[in-house]
Amino acid sequence: MRNQYKPEYLLIFLIGLFTSNLMAQEQFNYDESKVPDLVLPDPYVSSKGEIIESMADWENIRRPELMRFFSENVYGSIPMDFDEIHFDVSTDSDHLYKEVALKKNVRIKVSRKGKAQTIKLFVFQPLKGKGPYPVFLLISHRNAQDLLEDKEDQFFPLEQIVSRGYAAAIFDVEDVSPDDKVRFSHGILDTLYPEQLEMPEGMRGLAAWAWGAMRAMDYFENDISLDQNRSAVVGHSRGGKAALWCGANDERWSVVISNESGCGGAALSRRRFGETVKRINTNFPYWFNDNFKAFNDNEDALPIDQHLLAACIAPRSIYFASAIEDQWADPKGEFLSLKLGSRVYSDIYGIKVDLPESFENHQRTIHTNSVGYHIREGEHNLTLYDWERFMDFVDKEFLVAR
Ligand code: GTR
Fold first, then answer.
1. Ordered mean pLDDT values, 10 residues apiece, the chain (402 residues)
2. Which residue, by CA, sits nearest to atom 10 of ligand 1?
């Protein structure tokens, strides 16, 4: 039979062409031998060529410049101004964890220029022991209510956290900036800071989540049973990127914990391994500011790399965690970033940081002064295993007796 032209053949052909093109573009490197040599910005040379030698040089010249570079080119700066903040607190005695914790439902209402946004913060405070309790705050991109109703899920193992003498707090990013390409502005960006949306260097989703964590910290400062001076901000993956930006901006956090945050978080952007800047900007254009798009396939032009974000958190404590099967997040790039960034802890602040020279792709935990790290077996996730390591580290940092 003679081959007849049918319009659907053309359609199938076009779909085939489109998907094969897409697949050809979507090549991500997982081969260590194909990673080019890394040339990274030097923490100790400013953009004007000044040599950074002292704590004063770091704090007055280099750190402010790096924070500006991250603001302008990556995350957007976090607006600090609002007119009013109000905390409406009710305690809840009938909940799943009532044997071990007092639950506080906090509604944080922030107003600016006649408009307001309310964030729900849940705080679980140990029933035993004596306050003020040190706090772990989780920036949650998973539905907080669901997590609190599911005892099996250990993404936020509040029973274990509370039983170790910590308060466990959580808010859902949905209340601040929904984790959605279309709806992301339907939170503080539309209500409180609409001018940010007009600015290519403005705040977008991740910086908004960091802003939300800062408002939780405002609450901790107002609750006498919580110890805001011993507080840790934790995030997993996209939440871990936000935790890092929050911790770098807000010096009230004494510990900053980033779990498997990968590209645009803990991992070095210049290392060609796993997720790329272009891919993250394409899939999640609302996480970073518009200027970051200029670095798609152009990471070497960035005035920073992610090790310098870790450095900006110094001398406060920092923790990176990776998972061996989470190659998309580039565990080696996360380790190297911590290793290189933590030089500032020792060189500038005189803290003896003892991380191994090289990355090893097997399960291990290293808790050194002010800097913690672990890599575990398994996939991309936040698990009880991770939390137990975080708590061991934070116990040591806060000297909490168990
Ligand atoms: C992925 C994204 C990663 C990471 C992850 C997550 O799809 O590519 O950068 O953030 O989502 O948040 O679980």
1. 50 49 68 97 98 98 98 98 98 94 98 98 96 98 97 96 98 98 98 98 98 99 98 98 99 98 98 98 98 98 98 98 98 98 98 96 97 98 98 91 44
2. 238
What residues have CB less than 8 Å from 150, skipping those under 6 apart?
none
Residues whose CB falls within 8 Å of the CB of residue 346, separated by 6 or more in sequence, listed in order:
352, 353
Beta carbon of 238 within 6 Å of any ligand 1 atom: yes
* pTM, 2 dp: 0.94
| Residues 273, 248 contacting (CB under 8 angstroms) | no
Q: What tens digit of pLDDT does each residue of 307-334 get? A: 999 999 999 999 999 999 999 999 999 9
Please report the DSSP string for 209-265 in residue order: HHHHHHHHHHHHHH-TTEEEEEEEEEEETHHHHHHHHHHHH-TT-SEEEEES--TTT
C-alpha to C-alpha distance for 98 and 105, rounded to whole angstroms: 14
Dump the DSSP string for 332-362: HHHHHHHHHHTHHHHHTT-------SS--SS
- 212 within ligand 1 shell (Cβ under 6 A): no
Annotated active-site residue in 231, 237, 322, 346: 237
Out of 155, 237, 261, 278, mutate this one to test ligand 1's pocket (max ligand atoms within 8 Å of CB): namely: 237
Structural domains in the chain, CATH included, are 43-398 (3.40.50.1820)
Q: What are the tokens at 28?
A: 């991500």
Catalytic site residue 380? yes
Using CA atoms, how far apart are residues 269 and 272, in angstroms rounded to an integer?
7
Which of 75, 140, 278, 280 has the most ligand 1 atoms within 8 A of CB, as the residue to mutate? 280
Token reading at 348: 């500038």
